[in-house]
Specification:
By secondary structure, this protein is mostly helical. About 65% of the residues lie in helices and about 0% in strands.
Length: about 375
């Protein structure tokens, strides 16, 4: 994680250098705005880098929603043949440029950034006397951050920071608890709203397991944060809250530009006839219907069973290859193991008589 610590620190300090030249150490409302805006700058940098990935994530989700009926048809067609089903689904994803894993990519990228910022911003405190210059920091950066406050609450402090430690920088425990409490509530609320916005726009998943994951994301994470937010430094809570606010605005823009397919959003108002949106909706419906017809099993055709990997035993000598074969329902020299086993009893008897008559006629000719 050293690379993440160095990268996040470099971005944070460059933004702080910029805003320090603007404010020149001046404070308003007992707040060091240079450090506040430096943390906001980290959010802006991350959101700009991730925006193309976020757009691809929404496009991939739309493609997955659009293919839901086709995936269901494939599941019916290859029921019992899991290997073939997986191959057909991968081929469908490739043709339609849908990636089921794309939805996790932005989150996976954001997690190292959050963990690195958490590590970097919790290090400076009045009791720390070593390693001030790690990750590109200087003594001046360190001392400035230790003394920096948000409405009287130090950036490195948490809701649980003891009063004797706060007294070293002339901070009040009451101020810290108020600021940390309000920011923590804002962080939890914006986390809930961000997840809720995405679910409402894309809809609840029909799969029970996926729907359970959505509920955990919507309700479980905010509940966990109620108990963990007290250990977060105020600087980290600022980052998380601002990042959520950016996500709300970004999602609103992208979801408006890439609305979910009409068949996956029954509550949405249909577009007006004659508009481009209405024509696009009809075209999507026709394409989906055609794909369902192509992928659905033929009428009266059973789903393809799973291929057996157990080799069939070779027939015993003298069985299914001579006159005995005729008694089993197939002519001598024709068919293979099990030939004629689907015939009725009367048909097997008639075929056996025909074979027997042919054998007797052959013996008379030879005699």
């Amino acid at each position: 994680m050293e690379w993440a610590y160095d990268g996040v620190s470099w971005v944070l300090l460059r933004w702080h250098d910029l805003w320090s030249n603007v404010f020149h150490g001046n404070q308003a409302l007992a707040t060091d705005w240079a450090w506040v805006l430096a943390i906001v700058g980290v959010v802006i940098t991350l959101r700009v880098i991730l925006f193309p990935l976020f757009v691809k994530q929404i496009q991939s989700q739309r493609a997955m929603q659009k293919l839901a009926p086709e995936i269901k048809a494939l599941q019916e067609r290859y029921k019992g043949d899991r290997e073939t089903l997986q191959k057909e689904m991968m081929e469908l994803y490739r043709k339609e440029k849908a990636n089921p894993l794309m939805g996790c990519l932005p989150i996976l990228i954001q997690m190292p950034v959050f963990l690195a910022l958490f590590h970097v911003l919790r290090r400076p405190d009045p009791d720390q006397t070593m390693y001030h210059t790690l990750y590109g920091w200087t003594e001046n950066n360190w001392n400035t951050y230790v003394d920096a406050k948000l409405f009287g609450a130090p950036f490195w402090s948490t809701f649980l920071t003891p009063a004797d430690q706060l007294a070293k920088v002339d901070a009040s425990q009451l101020d810290v608890k108020l600021v940390a409490g309000v920011l923590g509530a804002a962080m939890i609320l914006t986390t809930f709203l961000t997840t809720r916005q995405m679910i409402l726009k894309t809809g609840w998943n029909e799969d029970p397991n996926q729907r359970m994951i959505q509920k955990v994301m919507l309700y479980g994470i905010p509940v966990i944060m109620i108990f963990s937010a007290g250990a977060f430094p105020i600087g980290v809570v600022i980052y998380w809250t601002v990042n959520n606010l950016f996500s709300l605005g970004q999602q609103q823009f992208v979801l408006h530009k890439y609305p979910p397919p009409a068949q996956n959003n029954p509550n949405a108002k249909p577009p007006k006839p004659g508009t481009k949106a209405h024509e696009k909706m009809l075209e999507e419906q026709r394409e989906a219907e055609q794909r369902r017809k192509d992928l659905a099993p033929k009428p009266g055709k059973r789903p393809k069973p799973a291929a057996s990997t157990t080799p069939k035993p070779d027939p015993a000598p003298g069985v299914n290859g001579s006159a005995v074969n005729g008694a089993n329902g197939s002519a001598p020299g024709k068919g293979g193991p099990g030939a004629g086993k689907n015939l009725s009893r009367a048909e097997r008897i008639a075929r056996a008589k025909k074979v027997s008559g042919a054998q007797q006629a052959s013996k008379k000719k030879k005699g």
